[in-house]
Design goal:
The chain has a single domain, classed as Jelly Rolls (Sandwich), CATH 2.60.120.620. It is built from two helices and 15 strands. The chain has helices at about 30-45, 80-95, and strands at about 10, 25, 45-50, 65, 70, 105, 105-115, 120-125, 130-140, 145-150, 150-155, 160, 170-175, 180, 185-195. The strands form two sheets. Strands 1, 2, 3, 5, 6, 7, 9, 10, 13 and 15 form a ten-stranded antiparallel sheet that branches. Strands 4-8-14-11-12 form a five-stranded antiparallel sheet, with no helix packed on it. A hairpin with a 2-residue loop joins strand 11 (about 150-155) and strand 12. The protein starts with 7 loop residues before the first strand and ends in a 5-residue tail after the last strand.
Length: about 200
């Protein structure tokens, strides 16, 4: 596996500690070969995503989310993937968020299909079981392979879209309201995960 050495971190109109709607975009964490490998796993997903997190209240609700998912658990053959994510998440958190974090969750690979109107309506990631602090979403395939599927945040009363770009990863506080709009053509693949903490936000 080829490891990408170059890193390119940047923020969008953010002031540390003063803007609770801050989020960060990261490029060049994974190369094309690695992204295509992960995209292939996402494409093979057959299980329907549920909402409600990792607890007994999890349920299927296609009015809110329509996504096919596969899970990657921490095991040796995926050590390179977890290691890459953990190192970069730790660095970004120390520099920008300064959250109390404990561990990363299992990784969810998702496929949003136009034939199913794949989507995930407005939601927050916190409030489910473990104390989710930081959310991560990585775009796995080229934007010319699909239409729709915009990843957006609601910042006050303004909706802000993340650029569509293969390999672009966004990190954000799990309490931020966000969504993936319906895919209208093709398929959109992504990797998402959550980093938990031992204590709730102060």
């Amino acid at each position: 596996m080829i490891f990408t050495e170059r890193r390119n971190f940047y923020s969008l109109n953010v002031k540390k500690q003063s803007d609770p709607t801050r989020f960060y975009l990261v490029r060049d964490i994974f190369n094309d070969e690695e992204l295509d490998y992960l995209s292939g796993i996402a494409k093979s997903a057959d299980s329907h995503a549920v909402i409600g997190g990792d607890n007994k209240n999890s349920r299927l609700d296609k009015n809110i989310r329509v996504t096919r998912v596969n899970w990657i658990i921490p095991e040796q053959k995926y050590a390179w993937l977890y290691d890459r994510l953990e190192k970069n998440i730790e660095r970004i958190n120390e520099e920008f968020f300064n959250f109390e974090l404990s561990h990363i969750s299992s990784l969810q690979l998702g496929n949003y299909k136009a034939e199913e109107s794949g989507k995930y309506e407005w939601h927050m990631d916190c409030g489910y079981g473990p104390i989710r602090k930081l959310s991560i979403a990585l775009q796995l395939n080229n934007p010319n392979e699909y239409e729709g599927g915009e990843f957006s945040f609601m910042r006050g009363v303004k909706e802000e879209n993340i650029p569509k770009e293969k390999g672009l990863m966004v990190l954000f506080p799990s309490f931020l309201l966000h969504r993936v709009s319906p895919v209208t053509s093709g398929e959109r693949q992504s990797l998402v995960c959550w980093v938990n903490g031992n204590r709730p936000f102060a």
